[in-house]
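Handout, page 2. Input:
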Amino acid sequence: WYLVGNITKNEGHSNWIQEHHLEHVSFGYKYFTALHWSLTQFTPASMSVQPQNIYERVLAIFCLVFGLVLFSSFISSITASMTQLRNMSEDKSKQFWLLRRYLRQ
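Output:
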């Protein structure tokens, strides 16, 4: 995000750095603002920095799609693990039930 902002600034396009009047602030502040923006793309948090040109918009869309795929695979992995644990628990319960039935006879 920081790189795209700097490149588009140098090419004369409007960008998030100029839109928020950050041209004269330190590198660290701009970098951490970009990091903050990046983190808000993967969480429900919000931020006032938004894409101002086509390059920033493409990167924002790419980040959102990447986050969607990553989050979906994470949820899928958790669901698969929970299903596997439930199946193991059911098998164990069935074995105990069969053992109790055998011991009663």
